[in-house]
Write a structure and sequence with these properties.
Blueprint lengths: L19 E3 L9 E5 L10 H14 L7 E5 L3 H12 L3 E7 L4 H9 L3 E5 L4 H15 L3 E2 L7 H9 L1 H8 L6 E5 L4 H13 L4 E7 L40 E5 L1 H15 L5 H18 L10 E5 L15 H5 L1
The structure holds 4'-deoxy-4'-aminopyridoxal-5'-phosphate.
Length: about 325
């Protein structure tokens, strides 16, 4: 276990064991705790899957040492995978839709990866297609497919879930987390439901995203600015298992933005839009529990703040709502 109190051999050993911190705005009776994933070496939750997926691909024989991974990503996965790739003798190429932040793309390149941009209008789906086309053209190249790879869920099942459970002495009433690939929520929920099948599980997506379709809900497809969660094509979210989810909630760009600014001003959290959305949804869940609208085994809510706002300063994250979304 990482204690940060003794010398370590590699930066990879600093992944995980992030702090779990109480969110001050939650009702007194139903505390909300957020796992601060910016404490990872690549400063996001995706460091957890980088090493796990690359080692898994090598062990399964899907990739040979010296080979190349080619992954479609909004950026954080690229950073997490690039960090691990350099340590494991694997080359990395990331296919990133243009709209995603330049900070992330610069960090991937700094870690030795090649970055290929696809048009914003083609969405994440366009990046996925391009990655597969590139892998077909290269020797010993594989697309790890974070959107479909069970190793993504497994990384969180083995780390995020147990860390939350242990930090709260097993008293986890609800988990409320944003879904991009849904790896974080699925792995955590699977672990926590095994410990207590009554654990209430809430998936969070931006307004305008269509993940709730997998739940039989019909919502209007719209663009959104919250970065890292949501989808316009739920068929790509192969890891999302409705069986593990009690509710899917939508958070507007404006609410996520108000909340990420409040978290900085009032609570000292320099977190980004997917954290703002997760926090807003976790606070709503805590209030619903307090008001007796949701049954939970314990009056405690856990969430994840996936990354930090510093990664989005170029996108005007701390400007007015109009400035951020223009
Ligand atoms: N927030 C941010 C900023 C992300 O980059 C991601 C990953 N796309 C998520 C949340 C969601 O994580 P997951 O893919 O595990 O659902």
């Amino acid at each position: 276990m990482t204690t940060h109190r003794e010398p370590l051999d590699s930066v990879l050993e600093t992944v995980g064991e992030t702090p779990l911190v109480r969110v001050g705005a939650a009702p007194e009776e139903v505390p909300v705790y957020a796992k601060l994933e910016s404490f990872n070496p690549g400063a996001s939750v995706k460091d957890r899957i980088g090493e796990h997926i690359i080692r898994g691909l090598l062990e399964q024989g899907d990739l040979d040492p010296g080979g190349t991974i080619i992954e479609p990503t909004a950026g954080n996965t690229g950073i997490g995978m690039a960090l691990a790739a350099t340590q494991l003798d694997v080359a990395a190429v990331f296919v990133v839709p243009e709209k995603f932040s330049v900070e992330k793309q610069q960090l991937m390149a700094a870690l030795g990866a090649e970055v290929v941009n696809t048009p914003t209008d083609d969405g994440m789906e366009g990046a996925i297609e391009r990655a597969h086309a590139m892998a077909a053209d290269r020797e010993n190249a594989v697309v790890p497919q974070q959107f479909a790879n069970p190793l993504n869920v497994e990384a969180h099942y083995e780390t995020t879930g147990p860390e939350i459970y242990e930090a709260l002495d097993g008293e986890v009433g609800a988990v409320v987390m944003g879904c991009g690939t849904a790896g974080t929520l699925m792995g955590t929920a699977k672990y926590l439901r095994e410990q207590n099948p009554e654990t209430h599980v809430v998936a969070v997506e931006p307004e305008g995203s269509l993940l709730a379709e997998r739940f039989g809900e019909e919502n209007e497809k719209r663009e959104y600015h919250i970065e890292g969660i949501g989808t316009h094509d739920p068929t790509t979210n192969e890891l999302f298992d409705p069986e593990l989810v009690d509710d899917v909630v939508q958070i507007s760009d404006r609410r996520a933005h108000d909340e990420l600014k409040r978290l900085a001003r009032e609570e000292g959290h320099l977190v980004a839009s997917s954290s703002g959305a997760a926090s807003a949804a976790a606070l709503d869940t805590a209030e619903a529990i307090r008001d007796g609208e949701v049954d939970v085994p314990y009056d405690t809510v856990a969430t994840v703040f996936p990354d930090s706002s510093e990664r989005y300063l170029s996108k005007g994250i701390y400007e007015s709502f109009e400035g951020w979304t223009q």
